[in-house]
Design a protein that fits this description.
2 copies of one chain form a homodimer.
Chain A lengths: L1 E6 L3 H14 L10 E8 L2 H17 L4 E10 L7 E5 L3 H9 L16 E5 L4 H11 L6 E5 L1 E7 L5 E8 L4
Antiparallel strand pairs in A: 1-2, 1-7, 3-4, 3-6, 4-5, 7-8
């Protein structure tokens, strides 16, 4: 099965993100707004149960909850036409991302970690310039907390279902 | 915020359910296939954190994982035109449903508990008779396990996001 690890931000942030995703993100229906902490990887269910979940519990236990800010949108252009709420980088979120690429957890990173919440993707170039031109004028002043992360798995229709939650600072 | 408690069945069951939901369930994009254990209720986040989550942990700890079978589809007609995969009733699932209506957890039950996985809803009467006539001929022979339940909350767009997972038999 295909697994991934993500944080679902608080309701207020998810509602803001969805107000854009509804119009601009074809993945709107496949998963709620999220910060990907680990790109999708393939694993067997027994490996998940016996090795990966115990390690995720340890990582969660050894990581204190932390806060982050969102102040603007940004984009991965010209690599892709993805637009996102920029999660202000912090030592805490980079540390957590690093920990999730150690031990039994696949270490492969296809991309440098850029913490973000996607709000638009797969736009045509014309749409992208139009939408990004307008969204990039927006200023945000959002403070939010990360107190847990989620192990998800992908269904045949592409949607993601939560397998388990891991609370930071708890074991 | 509006909360609910549900079980997400295994991937194999979710994939079967989605093969029907895609065509017949307008809630397809709002939540993965699920067994509702507690109807939506309103609560404040501090009440969730301080009272409800500790009680859910206790309930999970005191409930052993259990299996269930799916052998046929059934429907809530004539009350509603909902069609569902019938979760074979068992003492375990009724007990768990009962426990989730005790203590600080709202006790109100609008309906008698009928364990099910919705695959079609809000059909017109004509569609209903057509779809149910065809689906009710199907026989299933699915065995699945319930090893956890999830506390969810509803976003402004109607979609449900997972707040936390509770593993049965673990504290």
């Amino acid at each position: 099965m295909r697994y991934g690890i993500a944080v679902f931000p608080s309701k207020k942030v998810q509602d803001v993100a969805n107000s854009y995703r509804k119009r601009y993100d074809p993945h709107y229906a496949l998963i709620p707004p999220h910060i990907t902490l680990k790109e999708p990887f393939d694993a067997e269910e027994n490996e998940i149960e016996e090795k990966i979940i115990p390690e995720l519990k340890q990582i969660a236990k050894n990581t204190e909850p932390f806060s982050y800010g969102i102040y603007k949108v940004s984009s991965f252009s010209p690599v892709t036409n993805t637009i996102y709420l920029k999660v202000e980088p912090s030592e805490e979120i980079f540390d957590l991302n690093d920990k999730l690429h150690t031990g039994s957890l696949p270490e492969k990173k296809d991309f440098k970690f850029v913490p973000h919440i996607t709000i638009a993707q797969k736009l045509s170039d014309d749409e992208f310039f139009d939408v990004y031109g307008s969204l990039s004028m927006n200023k945000f002043d959002i403070q939010d907390n990360i107190g847990r992360f989620q192990l998800l798995y992908q269904l045949e229709n592409g949607a993601w279902s939560v397998y388990e939650t891991f609370r930071l600072g708890e074991g």
